[in-house]
Design brief:
Layout lengths: L1 H46 L1 E4 L2 E12 L3 E12 L13 E10 L4 E10 L4 E16 L12 E17 L4 E18 L13 E2 L2 E9 L10 E11 L9 E15 L3 E14 L7 E2 L16 E2 L1 E14 L2 E13 L11 E11 L7 E9 L4 E7 L4
Antiparallel strand pairs: 1-2, 2-3, 3-4, 4-5, 5-6, 6-7, 7-8, 8-9, 8-10, 10-11, 11-12, 12-13, 13-16, 14-15, 16-17, 17-18, 18-19, 19-20
Length: about 375
């Protein structure tokens, strides 16, 4: 009996060793396949990337989906320019130029030219040019839940927005905001969008005004610590060629905290926007889209004269070029400034995946999915962090 037990014990030990070896082999094969896949992706990225001196030029395909646009395909070159060493500046601020061209299954076509530029003598340019044609929906004005029928219409839009600021120190910047927009709306269907809605006739909405920023983040694209505060106001009037006379003022406050050797990061943002005057509906304050409350897919589903929202995001690097994020936020729009600000709030939560476009820089291509407490949801494929 003891001999049988001994041989049974030896047999079990041999089986465990064989199973352990098989697990090692399987793990090795899995790791090998993952490494080969990562190596293949690196080879493809190297093939579409050109590096010369301080500049890097990469060409990336784009794909995505949203209820507003349908499935999207496109192409996006990314031009990255590293600054020369400058002892007068405490922070590393590379320039990023990212044009893109996109089409969608719902008939959208769009061209963007996105620039974040910084010069050695502390000039900051944050600019975006957009041309877009999009069959869209109008959900009405207000913070209430929206029920069909909605109005359908086609948008032809040309827009250019830029903040031009001069650094008066390593962290303080002072300058101007310029906002130029031309909108043409055609094929309007439904009664919700009608001539009584300000902006129904489209036209020019052009404004200019002061901007003040404080920025001591350690990186402008993927900060791990520091503050960013931007306060700006623009006056839209006839002297700028605007068909509408109104003002728009915003305060944007962001804080970043490193939790674990810059691998795990917490980000917070609070933003307030206020408008007064003859505001066209497409320039009202809103809380949705791919950079604000990301559980609300359509950026203009909830819009009114004033808005506020707060959001928080946890970001973590996982492996190689991959990272992840969890986010949540809340806010609302209001006809009067801070009218019952904490009632009927929209809450969102979601998660995302990050892919580092350049191995030594914090420029990420991100995929986010968010949901809201009112049944909205959104999927976003875009460049750069939400905030």
């Amino acid at each position: 009996m003891r001999v049988q037990i001994f041989f049974l014990w030896v047999l079990c030990g041999l089986c465990n060793q064989v199973m352990a070896q098989e697990e090692v082999v399987i793990d090795t094969l899995d790791a090998s396949l993952v490494e080969q896949a990562a190596s293949l992706v690196e080879d493809v990225i190297d093939f579409v990337t050109i590096e010369k001196g301080r500049t890097t030029l990469s060409l990336y395909p784009m794909a995505g989906f949203s209820p507003r646009t349908g499935f999207i395909i496109g192409v996006m070159p990314v031009w990255r320019i590293r600054p020369r060493l400058n002892e007068s500046s405490d922070f590393y601020r590379p320039t990023t130029i990212a044009p893109s061209a996109k089409i969608s299954t719902k008939g959208m076509y769009e061209f963007d030219f996105d620039v974040q530029a910084f010069t050695a003598n502390r000039w900051m340019f944050i600019s975006k040019f957009q041309y877009m044609f999009l069959p869209d929906e109008f959900y009405g004005i207000g913070n209430q839940q929206k029920d069909p029928p909605f109005s359908r219409y086609d948008i032809n839009r040309i827009a250019f927005k830029t903040d031009v600021l001069k650094g008066i120190s390593a962290s303080w910047f002072l300058g101007l905001r310029l906002d130029v927009n031309y909108d043409d709306f055609t094929d309007v269907e439904g009664e919700l969008l009608n001539p009584s809605i300000p902006g129904f006739g489209g036209g020019w909405a052009n404004g200019i005004g002061p901007a003040l920023a404080y920025d001591n983040r350690d990186d402008q694209l993927y900060p791990t610590k520091g503050w960013f505060v931007m306060c700006s106001s623009a006056i839209y009037d006839g002297f700028m060629g605007s068909d509408y006379a109104f003002t728009s003022t915003s305060l944007d406050v962001r804080k970043f905290v490193s939790l674990h050797a810059d691998v795990s990061i917490l980000g917070f943002q609070a933003m307030v926007n206020a408008t007064t005057g003859d505001v066209p509906f497409y320039k009202l304050s809103s809380i949705g889209g791919n950079r604000m409350l990301r559980g609300i897919a359509h950026p203009y589903r909830y819009m009114d004269r004033h808005s506020w929202f707060v959001q928080a995001e946890w970001r973590r690097h996982i492996w190689w070029r991959l990272g992840t994020a969890l986010f949540t936020g809340t806010g609302k729009v209001m006809p009067e400034f801070m009218q019952t600000p904490f009632s009927d709030l929209h809450w969102v939560a979601g998660a995302g995946v990050r892919f580092k476009v350049l191995p030594d820089e914090g420029l990420n291509f991100r995929v986010d999915f968010g949901v809201s407490n009112h049944g909205d949801n959104g999927v976003y494929f875009t460049l750069r962090e939400a905030f």
